[in-house]
Amino acid sequence: MSVPALSRFSVILAAAVAIGCIPLGAFAMDWKQTTSLNFTDWPWGRFTQISIEYVPDIGDNIQEMSEYADPAKRAALMAEIQAEGMAEDPDAVGKNIVITVPGLEYGMTGTWSNVRIESGNGISVPQDEDKVGSATGAGKGTNYTGELVVIEFHENLLRGSYRAQLYSNKLSMEEINARSRNYLGEVSGELNFDPTPEPVPEYQMAEVPDELSDPDSELLQRIKDAGVPEDVQGQYLEMMRGMDPAMQQMILDSQSDSY
């Protein structure tokens, strides 16, 4: 993944604040659960992948505003968004979950055992059977602790539950020698969602102008030096114009850690 999802979201959100779409006083960082389903064909068979993840939710905060947000407050908000996002541990068990189950098709119900379930730095494998690291390939010969119960499954609804004991996916040398993984915890939950893919909203990102003033040229170079991808550099430039240099640097420092 070249650009973390939260970083792209932060750029879009901050840009929305910059043009006055989101009132600063009304904004609060909330998270919502999203669930998706994909059928995947691998050399050893057809699998269904159920992904559960948490993404920033700005809810009903997007509304029209006539006033342009104050640059200092806008920068402070951007820093807050980044700080909250950076505080989220991507390896924390239970934050985002991927369930991989073979042979599950529309119309099927029942209980599937030996299911691969991953979350953060955890995977539903207590030890490696064929070879060290085989769990990450999801090949045959791996015993999984995951269980999936499907009560109803068709094009517009997947209803059921899941659970698994999770063990370390990033093996230490001690784990490799022992051929056994450290226990991290249990994940479980209910499934009740429409698997129909939602249309992806299109955002018109600002482009870098052909002609730049000296201050803009200097700012653009700082944006590039921070490692911001080319496709969002124009958005950063538009967002950060007129900000206090210290605020600009705070944002760029946070982005250097993200990319």
Would you report the number of β strands? 8
Shape: elongated
- Mean model confidence by pLDDT: 74
> DSSP helix count?
6
* Major beta sheet summary: 8 strands, antiparallel
Oligomer category: single chain
Query: How helix-rich are the residues, as a percent range?
Result: 25-40%
Q: β content, as a range?
A: 25-35%
Kindly provide the radius of gyration, computed on alpha-carbon positions and rounded to a whole number of angstroms. Answer: 22 Å
Low-confidence stretches: 1-12, 15-28, 60-69, 130-139
What's this model, at a glance?
The protein is of the alpha+beta class and 259 residues long. It has helices at 5-18, 71-87, 173-178, 214-225, 230-240, 245-258; strands at residues 30-42, 45-57, 97-102, 110-119, 122-123, 146-154, 157-168, 183-193.
What does this structure look like?
A hairpin with a 2-residue loop joins β6 and β7. It contains 6 helices and 8 strands, in the order αββαβββββαβααα. It is elongated, with a radius of gyration of 22 Å. It has helices at residues 5-18, 71-87, 173-178, 214-225, 230-240, 245-258, and strands spanning 30-42, 45-57, 97-102, 110-119, 122-123, 146-154, 157-168, 183-193. The model is unreliable at 1-12, 15-28, 60-69 and 130-139 (pLDDT under 50). Strands 1, 2, 3, 4, 5, 6, 7 and 8 form an 8-stranded antiparallel beta sheet that branches. By secondary structure, the protein is α+β, with helices and mostly antiparallel strands. α1 (5-18) runs antiparallel to α2 (71-87). The relative contact order is 0.15.
